[in-house]
């Protein structure tokens, strides 16, 4: 298990100009140059904590038939980093409540005790004009399991976005539409972007348990039913893992000593 000091961002990025959708995890967040290293911790720093990353990993759905084949490294851990979420629509200009909800989502940031992220690749039919009829291509599925330092329900926003946004028409790409559909019974949305000929799809959303433990997930090239099955399985696994857990995964390090003034 690898714990990295980094800002972990998941994005659901819809690029309509080339009709491409990318779901990605970016770990290029920069840390301040003045941040102290482990060996340079100030005397007033709090007692160090250890985060049980294994329990987060235990909450991941890894069945290849559900989420695809795990990539290398299969699971990455992180501790004491903020978590952000965002959904960016290129070539579309949302307005009204749709725009305000997307802005709220894109500005979300919450300190996290720690968690894990994993990426999988599913084989899906390649429906591009130049591909053979039986050709396939890889579609990414990314999952993050994490604990926030404060009680919160960050995934609830995905209940509201589909009704607020419904179908958007592009003013930049003729005939292009972005259609939002709520994934039934889940805090997740299914997004289809079409130029009148080709269609790209993305599902994004998550789930929370006791307002402390959360899962966030993106999946490319999935139908609404596939999204319901995939996100439903991960939400159920999260619930099974943490439903009886009310305390934090972080515990004081046995080697740490309280700081003195």
Automatic annotation (TrEMBL):
Residues 1-25 form the signal peptide. Residues 237-247 have a biased composition (Basic and acidic residues). The keyword Signal applies. The keyword Membrane does not apply. Residues 250-261 have a biased composition (Polar residues). Coiled coil: none annotated. Residues 235-261 are annotated as: Disordered. Keywords: Signal. It comes from the Bacteria. This is PknH-like protein. It comes from Enteractinococcus coprophilus.
């Amino acid at each position: 298990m690898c714990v990295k000091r980094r800002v972990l961002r998941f994005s659901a990025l819809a690029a309509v100009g080339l009709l491409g959708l990318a779901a990605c995890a970016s770990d290029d967040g920069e840390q301040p140059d003045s941040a102290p290293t482990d060996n340079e911790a100030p005397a007033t720093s709090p007692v160090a904590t250890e985060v049980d990353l294994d329990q987060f990993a235990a909450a991941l759905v890894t069945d290849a038939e559900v989420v695809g084949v795990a990539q290398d490294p299969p699971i990455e851990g992180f501790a004491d980093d903020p978590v952000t979420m965002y959904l960016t629509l290129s070539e579309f200009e949302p307005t009204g409540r749709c725009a305000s909800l997307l802005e709220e989502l894109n500005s979300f940031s919450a300190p996290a005790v720690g968690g894990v992220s994993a990426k999988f690749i599913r084989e899906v039919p390649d429906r591009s004009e130049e591909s053979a009829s039986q050709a396939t291509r890889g579609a990414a599925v990314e999952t993050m399991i994490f604990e926030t330092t404060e009680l919160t329900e960050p995934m609830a926003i995905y209940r509201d976005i589909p009704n607020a946004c419904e179908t958007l028409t592009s003013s930049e790409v003729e005939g292009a539409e972005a259609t939002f559909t709520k994934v039934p019974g889940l805090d997740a949305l299914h997004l289809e972007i079409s130029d009148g000929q080709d269609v790209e799809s993305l599902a994004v959303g998550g789930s929370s348990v006791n307002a402390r433990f959360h899962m966030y997930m993106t999946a490319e090239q999935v139908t609404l039913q596939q999204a319901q099955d995939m996100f439903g399985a991960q939400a159920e696994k999260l619930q099974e893992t943490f439903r009886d857990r009310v305390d934090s995964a972080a515990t004081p390090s046995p080697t740490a000593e309280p700081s003195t003034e």
